Structure formats: structure tokens, C-alpha cells
Amino acid sequence: MDAALHDWSLTPKQAIALQSQLAKQLEADDRIDPVTHIAGVDIGFEEDGSITRAAVVVLAWSPEQAPPLTVVEQVVHREPTRMPYIPGLLSFREIPAALGAFAQLKTRPQLVMVDGQGIAHPRRLGVAAHLGLWLDLPTIGIAKSRLTGRHADVGEARGDWVPLMAGQEVIGAVLRSRAQVKPVFVSPGHRLSLATSLDWVMRCLGKTKLPEPTRLADRLASRRDQKRATASQTHTTASR
DNA sequence: GCGACAG
DNA sequence: ATCTTGTCGC
């Protein structure tokens, strides 16, 4: 077995305790600067998972310009994978690489959208929330599936949503971001309310199910699209 | 004790 | 997450 995959800096027990502590530091109210740039973050893997690849895309935002938004910067950062995937502890696996990518950014966004949960997490510290604390920036989690919480059925029209509940607590929303397509799970991370989080996700929605920031980060982080980009660059170069 | 379980 | 061809639809 690969020793590197077991080189944990924290035991699961320690990580869980830390999550409960960090969750107390989250701000649930809106505290966001005027938005000119929005970042999208996603993580992918190479070499059977031994390499973690973090992708960050920064888009220009203005109230006038509806999607598609303009890409102003993008970074891909690679480093050895430190932890296996354990449901509930995703942030410890993904955040180190994400921070590596952010360190290379020239632009500091006012808002960050992350592929994964915000507070819709057993201890209210999904990867989007955790990253928000590290960056001290407003973050939103947009997940493609559910980690925790219960919810009613969502309407079929774009924009329909129902609350995601943990007992009596609202921890996010199940949003029909595109008609007839499986809904996404939106939850605030740090420094944002659910209502504001939903507003921003709706505003960044293009023609697809995912908002532009995470859709583009997703593309950059995925192995297949890396090949696609490389191939088209080769074509461009060859045709000149 | 038995399932469920982001990426 | 990732391994993967074709195929249905705008």
C-alpha cells in the first residue's frame, strides 16, 4: 500500500473535533464587499489518486453582464494527495491543494464558489465553509449530491427550491438550477446567508446545471478536459 | 446494531 | 473522484 496515503496530519477523531470547533467561527450573516470578481474552485485527481489537482477560476462580475461571464484568471496546482476520501472529512483532503492554487492567484475575489457542501454537513463544516475560514472570504457550497439533511421534492422549473433541513435547522437548499435536471445542493459557507447564497448562484447560472464559477473550475480540474484543452492548444499551435 | 455517506 | 463508447437532443 502507498504510505503517503496514510500520512495523516490528523486522525479522523481529531479532525472531527476540530470541525466542531471551527464551525463556531463561521459567520452566518452577510459580510461581503462589492463584488467585481467571483472565483470557482474544484479538485480533481491523477495517477490513481496519488496526485491531487486543484483548479481555481476567477470570473469578472458586473450586474449588467449576465452569463457567460468573462474568465480573467485561472490556476491549476498539483501536489501529492495526503488523505483518503472519508465522507464528512472531505475538506482535509482537498483544502491543502486548494490553498496552493489560491496562493498563485493575482486577483483576490470577493466571493468564492466551491464544489461541495457549505454548512450542509454533519458538524456544519463542509469544504466550502472550511475554505471560507482559511481564506477569510464569503463562500458558497454547490454540491451535486446530498451529504446530510432531509428535504421535500423540488419543483421542476428552473429556480424552484426547497429548504434542506437538519431537524428544525435550515442548512441549505435543494435548487432546480436547470429544468428537468437533477437539482443541486446549495449551502452557505462563511460570511453569507442562505438567501444571499441562492441569489448569487442564480445570478451565475448559465445554460447548464452548475453556476459558471464551479462549472469552469470543474472542467479545469477534471482529467478528461485537461486532455481536451491540451489537444486544442496543440491544434492552435500547429495551425499557426 | 443497521444504513447513509460531498468528492 | 476515476475508469470509458456511443448516443440522444438542443
Automatic annotation (TrEMBL):
The record marks Y85 as: Interaction with target DNA. GO terms for cellular component: cytoplasm. It comes from Vreelandella aquamarina. Pfam families: Endonuclease_5. Its EC number is 3.1.21.7. Its cofactor is Mg(2+). This is Endonuclease V. InterPro entries: Endonuclease-V (IPR007581). Residues 229-240 have a biased composition (Polar residues). Its main location: cytoplasm. The gene is nfi.
